[in-house]
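P.,

For your records, the input lines for the assembly:
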Amino acid sequence: MAEKLSPKERTRIARQSMPEQPAAQRAHNFEEVNLGLSAAVAEKEAQRCLTCADPKCVHGCPVGVKIREVVDFVRQGEYLNAAAKLREDNVLPAVTGRVCPQEIQCEGACILSKRFAPLAIGHIERFVADYERSVGRVGLPKRARSTGKKVAIVGSGPAGLSCAGDLIQRGHDVTVFEALHEFGGVLVYGIPEFRLPKQIVKDEIENLRTMGIEFQTNVVIGKTVTVDELFSEEGYDAVLIATGAGLPRFLNVPGEHLGGVYSANEFLTRVNLLNAYDPLHYDSPVYDCRDRNVAVVGGGNTAMDAVRTSLRLGAKNAYLIYRRSEVEMPARREEVRHAKDEGVQFLMLHNPIEFVGNSDGELCGAKLAKMELGEPDESGRHSVAAIPDSEFVLPLDMAVVAIGTGANPLVQSSTPAIQTNKWGYIVVDEATFRTTKRGVFAGGDIVSGSATVILAMGAGRKAAKSIHEYLTTNVWEAETTLA
Amino acid sequence: MFAIKEDRELAPNIKLLRIEAPRIVKKRQAGQFVIVRVHDHGERIPLTIADSDTENGTITIVVQGVGKTTKLLNRLTTGDQILDVVGPLGMPSEVKLFGTVVVIGGGVGTAIAYPTAVAMHQVGNRVISIVGAKTKEFVILEDEVRAASDELFVMTDDGSYGAHGFVTQKLQALIEGGTSINHVLAIGPIPMMKAVAEVTRPKGIPTIVSLNPIMVDGTGMCGGCRVLVGGETRFACVDGPEFDAHEVDFETLVQRNRQYRSQEMKALNRFEAAAEIDSDALKPCELQRKYSEVGPQHAP
Ligand SMILES: Cc1cc2nc3c(=O)[nH]c(=O)nc-3n(C[C@H](O)[C@H](O)[C@H](O)COP(=O)(O)OP(=O)(O)OC[C@H]3O[C@@H](n4cnc5c(N)ncnc54)[C@H](O)[C@@H]3O)c2cc1C
Ligand SMILES: Cc1cc2nc3c(=O)[nH]c(=O)nc-3n(C[C@H](O)[C@H](O)[C@H](O)COP(=O)(O)OP(=O)(O)OC[C@H]3O[C@@H](n4cnc5c(N)ncnc54)[C@H](O)[C@@H]3O)c2cc1C
Ligand code: FES
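C-alpha cells returned:
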C-alpha cells in the first residue's frame, strides 16, 4: 500500500515530529528529552522518502550510510533488516541517531528540504537502532579466524571503539586502553544523560566485549605504558591513537581562577561521569547551582550541554553567552531549540572580558562587553568586535567556559617519532591514517581537532581497514605519502 | 581491582598502604602520583607514590585522613581492594647532581618528599632533610628519611621531639650558618611552602614545591587542577605537581582548594554519622559489595 503513493502524495505527509518530555518538566530531570518515534510514526515518516535514484542524503552522510535502503526497510516494516543495513556502515547507530548534526549532513542534503521539511532521517535511524536494542537481537558479526596479530587501541571514544569493532571481525586480537575508569570517551563524560543515556554506550561496549575485544581501564598511554613499550614489551603489532581532543581552552581573562569557574569538561565530567548531581549517593562534589545564577560561555554542543545541565541542577537563571549571533552557533539546531524551550536565556553578541570575585576568591559576576558583527570574510564568517564602552557586570555564582578544546599531548610527547602539526594534532596520511611512526595509526579528534561522533567513527573504521592492510602485507609506505 | 598488601598506622590519622599495581611500579619515578577511586560511587583523589617495590609489584601511599575519601581509605586493611588506581601521573621530580639539596617535609608532606630525597641521594647529592610535625607522635618516616639523608633535622611545633620550632627556622639557621645550599624541595601545608619560598627568595636559592590542587582526571582533560605560576595557567596534573616556589601564586591555590568546603563538610559529617550508627556497614568490603554491581569492565 505504502509503496503506491505518488511523489506528490508523499510530499503531502507532514514531517512527523519527535515526541519529547514537556520542557517545564524535563528542565528539572536528567531523563532523556526525546522519547523516540513509535513504529507506526516511523513508518509514516518513511513514506515521505522520495526514493531518489541517486540519494543525496547518502552523499551528505560522512560515512555513507545506505540511508535509502534503510528507509525502504522501515517503510516495509522490516526493522531488523533496516538495522542490519544501518550497521554495515555505522557501528553506533543508537548514538548517532541521537547526536549527529543531521541538519548539515543527511537531512541537509535531502531533496525534500528544497521545498518541504527534510525527511527525519535521524529520528528514523534512532527508531531502528532502539528497536533492535529493545528486541535484544543485535546482529553481532562473526569473528574471522585468528590472525595472531595484536592491536592496541588507545582511547575508548567513538574512534577507538569503531576501529576495535572492525579489527576484531577481521580476526585480530584487540585491546582497548582507557585512561579513565569508564569506557566511551566523550560519550560518557561529556554528552549528558538527557541527550544520550549512558546505558546505550554501556550496551555497545558489552557487544564489543562479547565479540572478543579486551578492555582495560586506568591505563594512561604515555604514562603507565608508552607506545614504544606496547610494541617492544607487550608484543603489539599495531597501535591506533584515538585519544580525542580533550584539553580544555580557557578565555585567558582575569578572574578565570576564581572558585566557581569551570571548564565545560570539568563541569560535565563531574556531573556525567562522577554523578555529582546525586551527592547523597556519590562522593564527587560539584558547585551547588540551586537558586544560583549560572552562565556558560560558548556556542557549540558542549556549551548547550553545560547550560542545560546547570538548569537541571536547579539554576535560577541559566545564561548562554556567545560572542556572535545565534545563526552562527555551531550547536545542533535541535539542542538550541530545546535549550530555549527549557528556559535558557541567550545572551548573543556578548563576550566576557573579566570574571569578578569576592574577597574569598569566589565568583560573583562577569564583566561582559557587547559585540557587533563586521563584514563577512572570504569564508563567509563575520568578524566580530567589542562595542566601545558597552561593558556591564552580570551577577553570577558559577560560570562554565565552553570555548573548545585542544590536543592532549600525553601520547605524542612521550613518543617523539609521532609527528604533530602546529596545534599539536597528530599528522596522518589522509588515505591510510598512518602516522610518521611505523605501525602507529591515529584517528578521530586527535587528528581532526574537535569534530563529531560520526566523523570520529568514520575515521576509526577507515583506520581499521588500513591497519588490517598493514598487518596482512607488512608494508609501510607512509613515509612516501606523508606531506 | 587493586589489592592492599599491607596497612600500617604511621601516626594518628596517617596510614601507609602498600597496593599491588605492577604496571605502575615499573614506570613510576620520584615525584609522581596516582589517582585512586575506592569504590564505584567514590571520588577520584590524587596521592603521591611514596615508594615502590619491584619484586612484589607494589606501590606505597601514605594517606592523611582529612575528609570523607581519605578517611575511608584509612579504614582499609590488608586484603581489601581498591577499585581504581591509575598512574604514574605528573612529571617526575628533576633529579640531578645539584650539590647540596635541602629536602623539607611538613606533616604528611614528609611522605611526599621522601621518594625525591631518596633519588637525590642516589645520584650523589648531599641531602639535608628537615622534617616538621605538630608533635612527636606526628613525626613520620623518620628512619626512612634518615637513611636517605646525610643530615636530618626534626622540628616539632611544641618541642616534644627534635628541636622546637618550624622547619623554616631550621632552614634559616642553615643559611645563616653558612651552609651553601644549591637546591631546596619543600612539601607540606601551603603556608609552610609559602614561608619556605620567602626564606630562600632573597638568597636566590632555587626552590621547588609540590602543589596539591583538587584534581579530577589527572590527564589534563578537565583543567580543574589549574594553578597560576609566573602569571601563567598551568595544569598541575600534567605540568606539575612540582613548580618553582618563587613563581607560584599560593593565594589562588588556597582559594581554589576551598571551593567545595561546605559540600566536603556535609559529606564528612554524613560519613561519620553513618559510621557511628553502623560502622560495619562502612567497612570497605561492605561498601564495595554494595557498590560493585559494576561488572567485569573494572577487572584489570
Ligand atoms: C560536551 C560535548 C558534546 C558533544 N556533542 C556532540 C554532538 O551532539 N554530536 C556530535 O556529533 N559530536 C558531539 N561532540 C563531539 C564528539 O563527542 C567528539 O567529536 C567525539 O567524541 C570524538 O571521538 P574520539 O574517539 O576521537 O575521542 P573522545 O570521544 O574524546 O575519546 C577519547 C578517549 O581517549 C581517552 N584517552 C585520552 N588520552 C589517553 C591516553 N593517553 N591513554 C588512554 N586513553 C586516553 C580519553 O579518556 C577518552 O576516553 C560533543 C563533544 C562534547 C565534549
Ligand atoms: C599531586 C597530589 C599529591 C597528593 N599526595 C598526597 C599524599 O601522598 N598523601 C595525602 O594524604 N594527601 C595527598 N594529597 C592531598 C589529597 O589528595 C587530599 O587530601 C584529598 O583529595 C582529600 O580528599 P577527601 O575526600 O578526603 O577530603 P575532602 O573532603 O575532599 O577535603 C577535606 C579537606 O581537604 C582539602 N582538600 C580537598 N582536596 C584537596 C587536595 N587535592 N589537596 C589538598 N587538600 C585538599 C579541602 O579543602 C578540605 O579542607 C595530594 C594531592 C595532590 C594534588
Ligand atoms: S586534574 Fe583534570 S586537568 Fe588536571
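Two observations worth noting. Chain A has 20 helices and 16 strands. The radius of gyration of chain A is 23 Å.

Regards
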